[in-house]
Amino acid sequence: MVGLVFAASQAVGLCSLAAQTNLPSRPAIAKPGNVYQSPATQAQQADDGANPAMLWVGQGEKLWSSTDAGDGKSCAGCHGDAVASMKGVATRYPQIDAKSGALLNLEGRINQCRTDRQHATPYAYESAPLLSLTAYITLQSRGMPRDVKIDGAAAAQFEAGRSFFVTRQGQLNLACTQCHDQSVGQKLRGDTISQGQSGGWPAYRFEWQTMGSLHRRLRACSLGVRAEQLPFGSPEYVALELYLAWRSQDLPLDAPGVRR
Amino acid sequence: MADTPHPTRISMPATAKRGDIIDIKTLIQHEMETGYRRDANGRVIPRDIVAHFEVRYLDEIIFAADTFAGVSANPYFAFSTIVGDSGPVTFTWTDLAGRKTVETRTLTVT
Amino acid sequence: MPQPSCTRILPTLSRRSVVAGATAAALTRSAWPAAAAFEDDGNATAAIAHIAAGREIKPGRVKLVLPELAENGNVVALSVEVESAMTATDFVKTIHIIAGQNPLAIIARYHLGPRSGRARVQSTIRLATTQTVTALAEMSDGTLWSGTMSVLVTLSACLDGG
Predict the structure, then answer these.
(1) Every domain of chain B and the residues it spans
(2) Cα gap A75→A81, rounded to integer Å
(3) Chain C residues within 8 angstroms (CB to CB) of chain A
């Protein structure tokens, strides 16, 4: 294990400690995460008949019309056909909730409808129903660019996310930007470091042999640098998610992705 | 034994011409627990896999597979068939305990 | 709550291959040490002999395609295609997929028939380590044909349990 950590820090040691700017920045040419996967993995993502994540999408579609929850009112009961009503919705998350002022990601919004409108218990983060609904709703924005607000009430959260992205963390003392801006294309533990774009999530990951949320991916990156893994849905990760969404702004959403 | 259907996804054309060769793709949500892993307490996690998959088109078997622990989680199969008459295509996945997941699609010949 | 990914890795990896994999993972593809690549075929010979039951196995007619480098042994895309007329009297009956370095050499048997139209199957398989995979096709006339493909498996380094 120690050898591996050493190897990992060596591999990343190649990235220079560029002067940290205080300005948000995006990769000059944005590239989606799947172009850093093998041709076989890319083919699996491109074919809905072969992409295992589509099993979760199918479950989400079923849940959308399910009347099992609290009041017996399904999502469809209020929102109608998701293909129309949820088109473009995922491009606008995370966003500030007008009522509470909190920054909500899509998972947070779905659970708000669960509790406030269906009067049911919220889904656990990373549970099959929450992953399925998130994947199903995100699919309705396939091919659409991100459209998040980073000013006004969201400005402070955006800054928190940006600052998280450029701050060195963990025993390996690495910031997100050192891998996902400065070491893009390099090999690390058999992976190829991508730009850390978020538009392919939720995704099916071979290593997990299942579907996972963006926060599960972020927890893996936190652990990778031996930093504290924040809880699923934590405000820090949601703020980071906002920064990532803005950083992916030029890329069409292509979730659900398939990853190593 | 009560059947507990697993979510599936089947991709195939709804209509086709007689004599055409069509491609069929299937996925089933199943962990394919190998039986080689141990839990946190060191106990072997029992093997739980899809052991057999069978596809019938108008009651004739067009594709079948015997599957073992070396098949990936959420098993995927793509295969083909020659279009004959209109009729049902039935997909049956059976696990080691004999529990079945069954799905049917109709192929209409134009 | 998801399990840490390390518990999800096939546990039968030899210490030798884990160490080799860890080193290899730090290298780029082109720098992969050729000598460390392929080990003996483990249980493959026995599994193949069992299927053949004394019959001759001819190399050819079977095109097995797997990635030369698998990013993760949990999901390796497989495509197998057999040259055959696929008529009522001349068709592929069964295709066996064998990986001798897996804990169980037999991965799957695909059964086809005249109604299959085309002898081609695609799937995803698990490979415990770098090895040569064999596809053995049994024809309706009882003859056996084989194709192989060698795959370098980049092992999971067990670093991220998120």
Answers:
(1) 8-109
(2) 9
(3) 1-2, 5, 8, 21-22, 24-29, 67, 69-72, 74-77, 122, 124, 154-162
The number of beta carbons lying within 10 Å of the beta carbon of residue A228 is: 11
d(CA A168, CA A170): 7
Give the pLDDT means over successive 10-residue stretches in chain A (260 positions).
36 42 81 95 97 98 90 93 98 96 98 95 97 98 97 96 95 95 89 95 96 97 94 97 95 97
Longest dimension (CA), chain B: 59
Residue A112 backbone phi and psi in degrees, to 5? -65, -40
Q: What is the DSSP string of A110-136?
A: HHHIIIIIS--PPPPTT-HHHHHHHHH
Q: Residue A36 in contact with residue A194, Cβ under 8 Å?
A: yes
> Which one of A190, A210, A222 has the shortest CB-CB distance to C25?
A190
C142, part of any domain: yes
Which one, of C112, C154, C105, lies nearest residue C133 by Cα? C105
Q: Residue C21 — left, alpha, or beta (φ > 0 → left; ψ -120 to 50 → alpha)?
A: alpha
Residues from chain B contacting residue A49 (CB–CB below 8 Å): 9, 11, 25, 27, 78
Q: Is C16 contained in some domain? A: no
Residue A45 maps to which CATH number? 1.10.760.10
Cβ–Cβ gap B68/C106 under 8 Å: yes
> For residue range C12-55, what is the model confidence (pLDDT) as tens digits?
323 333 333 333 333 333 333 333 344 456 789 889 999 999 99
Residue A27 lies in a domain: no
Q: Cβ–Cβ of A209/B31 closer than 8 Å? A: yes
Rounded Cα distance between C117 and B24, Å, is: 12
Strand partners, B25: B11, B78
Residue type, A49: G
**Backbone CA torsion sign across A197, A203, A204, A205:** positive
Tokens 């024809």 identify what position? C139
Does the CB of B16 have a partner CB in chain C at under 8 Å? Answer: no
Give the nearest chain C residue to B58 (CA atoms): C115
C-alpha of A162 from chain center: 15
Domain interval for residue A81:
2-12+38-259
Is ipTM > 0.90 here? yes
Contact B29 A47 (CB under 8 A): no
Q: How many domains does one find in chain C?
A: 1
- Domain residues for C149? 44-153
Q: Do A55 and B31 touch (CB under 8 A)?
A: no
Q: Is A221 a catalytic residue?
A: yes
Contacts of A218 in chain C (CB under 8 A): 162
Distance CA A82, CA A114 (A): 16
Compare all CA atoms of chain A with the CA of C70 and give the residue at the minimum distance: A38
Which residue from C minimizes the CA distance to B79?
C121
Residue A149 within a domain: yes
Q: Does domain B8-109 have CATH number 2.60.40.10?
A: yes
